[in-house]
Write a structure and sequence with these properties.
Blueprint lengths: L7 E17 L5 E17 L3 E5 L6 H8 L7 E6 L2 E2 L5 H11 E4 L11 H11 L4 H14 L15 H12 L6 E5 L7 H18 L2 E6 L10 E6 L2 E2 L1
Parallel strand pairs: 3-8, 3-9, 6-7, 7-8
Antiparallel strand pairs: 1-2, 1-4, 4-5, 9-10
Helix pairs in contact: 3-4, 3-5, 4-5, 5-6
The structure holds adenosine-5'-triphosphate and magnesium ion.
Magnesium ion (MG) binds next to helix 1.
């Protein structure tokens, strides 16, 4: 579902993130720990590209994806989503863009354990006001797309890691996003399952014309991407 004619899905300009952790030692003793997670990241992702963000643990991949996905605000710098400055808009507008146009697959899935796979996939469509019949049809299609048509009634704790990963992918696609952000979508999987998931993502992205940015520290799975962006210690290299 493409409506915007703009060459870049994502543009970041000097994005910095500083985390401040304060620690109370004693009555009057107080120290502050500063983590400079991103130190000025600038890059562009073209509309329709499939890009891997490659970097070791702690290099800032999750932080960067969360900032692009509008989940976390940067300390400095700008993020443009199809030309819209996400850092300049109000929280309410940002939440709407997140709901309607950006699919996010969390490193730890974040599925709702008391809801079935079907209901987890349906939930973003409930939030965006899709009528019941339409969203049920869509949830069934998505379950099928990720090969879980027989697991719709299972709750996340009753699914394997790879199956939960696929539910998370299906949920991220529920509202037909323009951009899919996938944080280590193969991090918890064996190589064979990992390759299957990556190929699935690749096929979906192509069929549905979705731009994808996925993070990984695994060199073996980056072969399928159009381009690799490398990050180290919060710097794009
Ligand atoms: N909420 C937070 N508060 C404080 N520091 C944080 C927070 N989130 C991340 N950090 C720090 O920022 C740095 C980057 O973390 P980030 O999670 O972005 O790395 P990552 O590349 O995703 O690592 P991994 O591959 O292990 O998932 C780390 O030093 C981390 O400890
Ligand atoms: Mg991470």
């Amino acid at each position: 579902m493409k409506t915007l004619q703009y060459p870049y899905a994502v543009e970041t300009e000097n994005v910095e993130k500083i985390y401040y952790l304060s620690k109370q030692r004693g009555e009057n003793e107080h120290s502050e720990l500063i983590v400079h997670a991103l130190k000025g990241c600038t890059f562009k992702i073209k509309d329709g590209e499939f890009v891997s963000l490659l970097g070791p643990s702690g290099s800032g991949k999750t932080t960067l994806l969360e900032i692009i996905g509008g989940i976390v605000r940067p300390t400095r710098g700008n993020v443009f989503f199809y030309g819209f400055d996400l850092t300049a808009i109000k929280a309410k507008e940002l939440a709407l863009i997140r709901l309607k146009a950006i699919g996010y697959i969390f490193q730890d899935f974040r599925l709702i354990p008391v809801l079935s796979a079907f209901e987890n996939i349906e939930l973003p469509m409930v939030f965006s006001g899709i009528p019941r019949e339409v969203r049920h049809k869509k949830a069934r299609e998505l379950l099928k797309m990720v090969g879980l048509e027989n697991f719709g009634e299972h709750k996340p704790p009753q699914l394997s890691g790879g199956q939960q990963q696929r539910v998370a992918i299906a949920r991220a696609l529920a509202n037909d996003p323009m951009l899919l952000l996938a944080d280590e979508p193969t991090g918890n999987l064996d190589l064979v399952t990992a390759m299957k998931i990556i190929k699935l993502l690749r096929t979906i992205a192509k069929d549905l014309e979705i731009t994808v940015l996925l993070s990984t520290h695994d060199l073996k799975i980056i072969g399928v991407s159009d381009r690799i962006i490398r990050i180290r210690d919060g710097v794009i290299i």
